[in-house]
């Protein structure tokens, strides 16, 4: 008998009392089982430590943050002109930023996906909004 293929299903985490639980939408699990005929494997959220003094740590106000590991690529080392902001346990870069530009962060996870449920994602998108408003004011002042 041939087993159905395994498919990774990213999870988010939620705090229930003093315990953190992985969660995945039941409709996604059911769709994978019924329609796709695969076996879902729950992928845990990552909590990469954030670089002290880095943008992400400043925005979030903490030393680590929960991110969704739903990426199929990885960054082994950052290019010249970039600075790593967070690393996964296995050493892959989970966030980087430009050394010379006002607002150029790069992340292989998706902060827009759970922005209303994840304070860290909200902080990243809030910083983006602030950078947009600052840029707009600069352009208006320069005109």
What does this structure look like?
With 143 residues, this protein is α+β, with helices and mostly antiparallel strands. It folds into two domains: 1-44, no CATH class; 45-142, Rossmann fold, CATH 3.40.50.880. 27% of the residues lie in helices and 24% in strands. The chain has three helices and seven strands; from the N terminus they run βββαβαβββα. The chain has helices at residues 26-34, 55-60, 119-142, and strands at 6-10, 12-16, 19-23, 39-43, 82-87, 93-98, 105-106. The strands form three sheets. A three-stranded antiparallel β-sheet has the order 5-6-7. A hairpin with a 2-residue loop joins strand 2 (12-16) and strand 3. It starts with 5 loop residues before the first strand and ends with a helix. The model has no long low-confidence stretch (mean pLDDT 80). Keywords: Hydrolase. GO terms for molecular function: hydrolase activity. This is Gamma-glutamyl-gamma-aminobutyrate hydrolase family protein.
């Amino acid at each position: 008998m041939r087993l159905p293929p395994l498919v990774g299903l990213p999870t988010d985490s939620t705090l229930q009392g003093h315990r953190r639980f992985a969660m995945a939408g039941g409709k996604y699990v059911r769709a994978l089982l019924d329609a796709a005929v695969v076996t879902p494997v729950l992928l845990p959220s990552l909590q990469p430590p954030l670089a002290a003094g880095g943008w992400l740590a400043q925005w979030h106000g903490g030393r680590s943050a929960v991110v969704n590991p739903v990426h199929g690529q990885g960054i082994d080392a950052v290019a010249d002109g970039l600075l790593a902001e967070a690393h996964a346990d296995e050493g892959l870069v989970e966030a980087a930023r430009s050394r010379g530009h006002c607002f150029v962060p790069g992340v292989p996870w998706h902060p827009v996906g759970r922005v209303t449920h994840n304070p860290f994602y909200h902080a990243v998108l809030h910083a983006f909004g602030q950078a947009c408003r600052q840029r707009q004011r600069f352009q208006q002042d320069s005109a």
